[in-house]
Amino acid sequence: MSARDEILGRIRSALRDTPSVPEVPRDYRRSSELGEEELIELLTDRLLDYKANVVVEQASAVPRRLAALLEGTGRYAVPHGLDQSLFAEADGFDGGSSRRVTDAPGHRLSVEELDAVDAVVTGSAVAVAETGTIILDAGPDQGRRVISLVPDRHICIVRAGDITAILPEALRRLDAARPQTWISGPSATSDIELERVEGVHGPRTLDVVIVRG
Q1: Helix, strand or coil for residue 164?
Q2: How many alpha carbons lie under 13 Å from residue 33 in its C-beta half-sphere?
Q3: What is the CA angle 159-125-26, rounded to 5?
Q4: DSSP code at position 184
C-alpha cells in the first residue's frame, strides 16, 4: 500500500460515520466602500511599512519609470505575456533589449539562468490594500512562480483597478485552481535571535509600480 492509499484510507475511515458538517460563520466583512485613491494610499502605506519601494504613476509614465528602475541593472527577466513596449525606454540604457530575457512556455528559463539575472519584472493579478498583499496567479504577464522567487529583485506592476480593500474581495477575483504567489514586502524572516534576515525565500528588494488609468 502506498502512502497515498494509506492517507486516503484513513480519511475514508474517519468519514465512515458521515459526521455532520458544521456551518461556517460568514458574518465577517466581505466588501468595502473605499475609492481608488483611498485604496492606493492604503496599499502604499502598508507596502512601505513592509520595506517595499513604492511609486504611483500614470500609465503613460510607466515605461519611463521602468527605465529609471532598471538603469544600472544588468540582465533582467520578464514573463512572455508582459507588454514588451513597457521597456521601450529601458532599451535605451545599458545594452538595450539584449539584457532582457523572456520566460515563455516554449523557452523556460532554468534556475541557473534566473539566478544569473539581477531582477525580474512582472504584472500582478490583484492586491489587498488592508494587508499590503500583492497576489500573482501565474497569468501571462506574471509568469511561473519561480521567476518571481529566484531573482534577488522583483519589480511588480499593480494596476489601480486591481486593488481591493479587503481579502474577501480579492478572493472573489481569483481562481483557486491557479498557482498563486502572495507577496507582502521583500522576502524576510527572523533567525533564532529574532534578527531580521532578508532574501531567504525570495527577492530581497521589492519595487512596486502602482499604475493609475
Answers
A1: strand
A2: 0
A3: 110
A4: S
**Which pLDDT value is given to residue 94?**
66
pLDDT digits (tens, 9 = 90+) for 44-97: 999 999 999 999 999 999 999 999 999 989 999 999 999 999 999 998 876 677
Which whole-number Å values give the CA distances from 48 to 21, 138, 168, in the listed order? Answer: 42, 25, 23
Q: Which three cell numbers stand for residue 182?
A: 502572495
**The residue to which cell 492604503 is assigned:** 42
Strands 196-198 and 153-159: unpaired
How is residue 178 written as a grid cell?
A: 491557479
Cα 84 from Cα 35, distance rounded (Å): 30
Nearest to 138 by CA among 124, 128, 126: 124
pLDDT digits (tens, 9 = 90+) for 89-141: 998 876 677 899 999 999 999 999 999 999 999 999 999 999 999 999 999 99
- The whole-angstrom separation of Cα 46 and Cα 139 is 24
Q: Do the Cβ atoms of 77 and 120 come closer than 8 Å?
A: yes
Instruction: Flag whether pLDDT at 185 surpasses 90.
Output: no
Q: Nine-digit cell at 47? A: 507596502
Separation between Cα atoms, residue 57 and residue 75, nearest integer Å: 24
Distance from the Cα of residue 2 to its chain's centroid: 36
Rg value, the chain, Cα: 20
Classify 49 as helix, strand or coil.
helix
How far apart CA 202 and CA 146 sit, in angstroms, is: 9
